[in-house]
UniProtKB/TrEMBL annotation:
<keyword id="KW-0520">NAD</keyword>
<keyword id="KW-0560">Oxidoreductase</keyword>
<dbReference type="GO" id="GO:0070403">
    <property type="term" value="F:NAD+ binding"/>
</dbReference>
<keyword id="KW-0456">Lyase</keyword>
<dbReference type="InterPro" id="IPR001753">
    <property type="entry name" value="Enoyl-CoA_hydra/iso"/>
</dbReference>
<dbReference type="InterPro" id="IPR050136">
    <property type="entry name" value="FA_oxidation_alpha_subunit"/>
</dbReference>
<dbReference type="Pfam" id="PF00725">
    <property type="entry name" value="3HCDH"/>
</dbReference>
<protein>
    <recommendedName>
        <fullName>enoyl-CoA hydratase</fullName>
        <ecNumber>4.2.1.17</ecNumber>
    </recommendedName>
</protein>
<dbReference type="InterPro" id="IPR006180">
    <property type="entry name" value="3-OHacyl-CoA_DH_CS"/>
</dbReference>
<dbReference type="InterPro" id="IPR008927">
    <property type="entry name" value="6-PGluconate_DH-like_C_sf"/>
</dbReference>
<dbReference type="Pfam" id="PF02737">
    <property type="entry name" value="3HCDH_N"/>
</dbReference>
<keyword id="KW-0276">Fatty acid metabolism</keyword>
<dbReference type="InterPro" id="IPR006108">
    <property type="entry name" value="3HC_DH_C"/>
</dbReference>
<feature type="domain" description="3-hydroxyacyl-CoA dehydrogenase C-terminal">
    <location>
        <begin position="497"/>
        <end position="593"/>
    </location>
</feature>
<comment type="similarity">
    <text>In the N-terminal section; belongs to the enoyl-CoA hydratase/isomerase family.</text>
</comment>
<dbReference type="GO" id="GO:0036125">
    <property type="term" value="C:fatty acid beta-oxidation multienzyme complex"/>
</dbReference>
<dbReference type="InterPro" id="IPR006176">
    <property type="entry name" value="3-OHacyl-CoA_DH_NAD-bd"/>
</dbReference>
Length: 716
């Protein structure tokens, strides 16, 4: 044994070859500080051992190395710039020292080789992948760039164009695609990986493969003439500007860094990478995106833990109420392997539900993601029916009828009288109290809310709403089924609007008040989309949701929380609804919708909408972008804080993920609580107090005031 540590070891094989094996104590290998330190010690041991002809690098786990240990980033990045620069500089030069060993190195890549794992592979002279490999540099998804030499080595191995596409998108490759692009030198079956990599290493040591030339190429400037350089980097910059926009600095920094480093050797290029990494590590976008990653891990871990405790295995779903929503739920169940019965009282609705499923599958076939067999299997797994009796064998029923408590109550009672005693019953409601609906049932312990978001096949979130009588077994089974259906479950407690809609409607109320005070809805939409980063501004979002749907839900919220959510006099959305302007569903709302001469959808601000709003609003005036953002986001933030304080949601992290997955909250802001924390709690309190005169939705709770005064955090 040449070296033995907690995360890796180096031993001698036959004929003078050494093997460096990553095998951390946990389930995966990752580059935490301990592993980086051990790699440096192992490299020093190899360099001083004498008689080593070459080193084979591999993993003893199902994945090579999944990346850096992101849990260390929060404390690291809080350090002063100079200390972060020292850390990343010292770490990246550990990889340099390995790369500089005086004999060939070959990496055997299996499973995930991401981030630091990919950079370790690139530090070797050659790479062999197996057919389980997924290799890439996904740091951009954390608001960062590669920091251990990835921006230096990858462009010199596969060319700057390919490398920038890898890094700015963060997408990984399988072995075959990586081979085609030149990132690996061979792809073999998993059982042949070690043998093939060792054979390549021996060929290199015997001079049959020119490993020195490969290494020299990685340490030299990029081989681009002036015209090639200009074309390569201008194209990459344009692509990043179009796809990432101004809110995500990481991909822009990557292009700039690789371009500036293109004429430099490894050491000079690495210095630029280190500096760029530190700049990004200090951005709000990086803090937000790292926060999202951590919150996502928490949500996934919690979901898996709840699912493991499930005592009921759902093998047949039933969906009550077809149409677009019911069809979407049935499709999602069937496509993920859980057959679904789709029941309605109307044959036309059943046809619409099946059409929705077929349309989704058809689009998948057009994109090459679904084949004919998959389409047939999915549609065959959906059974349309007009009869309640077909529900008798269902393990779980998801009621998705009209959003009316009386209708839902009647339907739920009929379901309970039909299904087995141990069948689970759920309601896909967006606002109606689960405790209220449970009054219709004799066994409320097997009932909960299961709120899907439209379009079902695209929106990741399912809110699972626990009523006061809902059993833990019911929640566990519904969480497990939600995961099987490919969705992210977040469990919340019952209240009007639950979590997502409860925080959304104060945002809409802030928007309505702003219009009545003289704002132009197109100007508000522009600020909330272009400046704040929402995928849709509030007027456009109302049109997409359906103004009738929104008006109904706003009434439910006003009835449930009258002290803050009472309806505005002359609410612009109510004016639209009364004028039969329902949004996209009938082509007229705040905007008018149609198609141009080429058949492409059009959206234009509706003169009719202005005609409805202007007579009841103040004289039109221009509002500063910061005031527009404050007047919409403070009510949302306040209501989110109240949901956390009341125990509707368990943690700030879960609230952030719910808004990200359910509403499309801008990822570069990290979620509503991350947004508040980035602003600073004391600054948020001061800002809210500035607008407190506008009404209860702007008035903060004593809890957040106390937290700000005591310097506390929602993520402590």
């Amino acid at each position: 044994m040449i070296y033995s540590g907690d995360s890796l070891s180096v031993s001698m094989l036959d004929d003078g070859f050494a093997e460096l094996v990553f095998d951390a104590k946990g389930s995966v290998n990752k580059f935490d500080r301990q592993t980086v330190s051990e790699l440096d010690e192992a490299t020093a041991a190899l360099a001083s051992h004498g008689g080593v002809k070459g080193v084979l690098v591999r993993s003893n786990k199902g994945a090579f190395i999944v990346g850096a240990d992101i849990t260390e980033f929060t404390s690291l990045f809080a350090l002063p710039d100079e200390e972060v620069l020292t850390w990343v500089g010292n770490t990246s030069r550990v990889f340099d020292r390995f790369e500089d060993l005086p004999f060939p190195t070959v990496c055997a890549v299996n499973g995930f080789a991401l981030g630091g794992g990919c950079e370790m592979a690139l530090a070797c002279d050659m790479r062999v992948a197996d057919n389980t490999t997924r290799i890439g540099l996904p740091e951009v998804k954390l608001g960062l760039m590669p920091g251990f030499g990835g921006t230096v080595r990858l462009p010199r191995v596969i060319g700057s164009d390919n490398a920038l596409e890898w890094m700015t998108t963060g997408r990984d490759r399988n072995g075959e695609k990586a081979l085609k692009e030149g990132a690996v030198d061979a792809v073999v079956s998993a059982d042949k990986l070690r043998e093939a990599a060792l054979a390549m290493l021996k060929d290199a040591a015997e001079g049959k493969l020119n490993w020195e030339a490969r290494r020299a190429q990685k340490k030299a400037p990029l081989q681009l003439n002036k015209n090639e350089s200009m074309m390569s980097f201008s194209t990459a910059a344009a692509m990043v500007a179009a796809q990432a926009g101004k809110h995500y600095p990481a991909p822009h920094m990557m292009v700039e860094t690789v371009q500036k480093a293109s004429t430099l050797d490894r050491d000079g290029a690495l210095t630029l990478e280190n500096q760029g990494f530190v700049k990004l590590a200090k951005t709000d976008a990086a803090k937000a995106q790292i926060g999202i990653f951590m919150a996502d891990q928490l949500v996934k871990s919690k979901g898996k833990k709840q699912a493991k405790s499930a005592t009921k295995d759902v093998k047949l779903n039933a969906v009550l109420g077809a149409g677009i929503m019911g069809g979407g739920i049935a499709y999602q169940s069937a496509v993920k392997g859980i057959p679904a019965v789709m029941k309605d009282i109307n044959r036309d609705a059943l046809d619409l539900g099946l059409k929705e499923a077929a349309t989704i599958l058809g689009k998948g076939m057009q994109r090459g993601k679904v084949d004919a067999a998959k389409m047939a299997a999915t549609l065959n797994a959906i059974t349309p029916t007009l009869e309640y009796s077909t529900l008798k064998d269902a393990d779980m029923v998801i009621e998705a009828v009209v959003e009316n408590p009386k209708v839902k109550g009647i339907v739920l009672k009929e379901v309970e009288d039909t299904v087995a005693d141990d069948a689970i019953i759920c309601s896909n409601t967006s606002t109606i109290s689960i405790n209220q609906l449970a009054e219709s049932l004799e066994k409320p312990e097997r009932f909960c809310g299961m709120h899907f978001f439209n379009p079902v096949h695209k929106m990741p979130l399912v809110e699972i709403i626990r009523g006061k009588d809902t059993s833990d077994d019911t929640i566990a089974a519904v969480v497990a089924t939600t995961l099987k259906m490919g969705k992210t479950p977040i469990v919340v407690n019952d209240c009007p609007g639950f979590l997502v809609n409860r925080v959304l409607f104060p945002y809409f109320a802030g928007f309505g008040k702003l219009l009545l005070d003289g704002a132009d809805f197109t100007a508000v939409d522009k600020v909330m989309e272009k400046v704040f980063g929402w995928p849709m501004g509030p007027a456009y979002l109302m049109d997409v949701v359906g103004i009738d749907t929104g008006d109904h839900a706003a009434n439910v919220m006003a009835e449930g929380i009258p002290e803050r959510m009472a309806r505005l006099d002359n609410d612009p959305s109510t004016l639209m609804y009364k004028a039969d302007r329902l949004g996209q569903k009938n082509g007229k709302g705040f905007y008018n919708y149609g198609v141009d001469k080429r058949g492409k959808p059009t959206k234009t601000a509706a003169d009719e909408a202005y005609a409805l709003i202007n007579p009841v609003s103040a004289e039109r005036k221009e509002f500063d972008k910061d005031e527009i953002i404050a007047r919409l986001m403070i009510p949302m933030a306040n209501e989110a804080i109240r949901c956390l304080e009341e125990g509707i949601v368990d943690s700030a992290a879960e609230a952030d993920m719910a808004l990200l997955y359910g509403l499309g909250f801008p990822p570069f802001r990290g979620g509503i609580f991350r947004y508040i924390e980035t602003m600073g709690l004391a600054n948020f309190v001061a800002l809210a107090d500035k607008y407190a005169h506008l009404g209860p939705i702007y008035q903060i709770s004593d809890g957040v005031r106390d937290m700000a005064a005591n310097g506390k955090s929602y993520f402590a």
